[in-house]
Design brief:
Number of helices: 6
Strand order of the largest sheet: 2-1-3-4-14-13-12-9
Strand content: 25-35%
Order of helices and strands: EHEEHHEHEEEEEHEEEEEH
Helix content: 10-25%
Structural class: alpha/beta
Distance between the termini: 24 Å
Shape: globular
């Protein structure tokens, strides 16, 4: 391993697009380990939680394996964390996907489904490229989107979106029928609804910003 090369863990809980996230992180210069045990989280300064699929089975797997506790300890120790897509949604207190389900409750707020307005033809899920607009009130967002233009495109695949209770977490907003929080950044907690690993050079830049970020 190269000296100073960022050492990063990607959590494998059976619901993540591990190969593409791992490859993207490696392209950004990270030394990547795939981990399956909750206690291993505490060995790393940088952890990524990817995810595709449904909220409730995912959060149950994480809690049953003890990841809820070690992720909170990792974050409280001021080590960096990035949640991607479902891994982003799982950070929140509750989700209304197929009923009401408790999340990891690391970020206060909830996850709700896109609902078409009256007479609106809205395709759900929201799939494809869309613009992000970076919050000018969020200091950490400036680090997250360093050298990335405001209004840049990222790749999305989702039917539900996150609503943080405290605006201090909102790093960017995207419009799809409504303006929704497309990423969060507050100190060492980062998350994005879009897929940086599928968002070409811009997504790789965001991943590199995360891997090199220090409080």
């Amino acid at each position: 391993m190269e000296q100073n090369k960022p050492k990063t863990a990607i959590i494998d809980y059976g619901m993540g697009n591990l190969r593409s996230v791992s490859k993207a992180a490696e392209l950004c210069g990270a030394d990547v380990d795939i981990i399956t045990e909750a206690d291993d989280v505490l060995k790393y300064n940088s952890v990524i939680l990817p995810g595709v699929g449904a909220f409730d089975p995912a959060v149950k797997i994480l809690k049953n394996k003890g990841f809820d506790k070690t992720l909170k300890e990792h974050i409280s120790n001021k080590k960096t964390f990035l949640g991607i897509c479902l891994g982003f949604q799982l950070l929140f207190s509750e989700s209304f996907e197929d009923g009401l389900h408790k999340g990891l409750d690391i970020v206060a707020g909830f996850v709700e489904k896109f609902v078409p307005k009256e007479n609106e033809k809205l395709i759900i899920p929201h799939i494809g490229w869309n613009k992000i607009f970076v919050s000018d009130k969020n200091k950490t967002a400036k680090k997250m989107y360093e050298d990335i233009k405001d209004g840049e495109y990222f790749y999305f695949v989702h039917s539900y979106f996150c609503k943080p209770e405290d605006e201090k977490f909102t790093a960017s907003v995207t419009n799809y029928s409504v303006d929704f929080c497309s990423s969060i950044a507050y100190e060492n907690i980062w998350g994005c609804q879009f897929h940086p690993e599928k968002s070409s050079t811009t997504g790789l830049k965001l991943l590199k910003n995360f891997l090199n970020y220090k409080l």
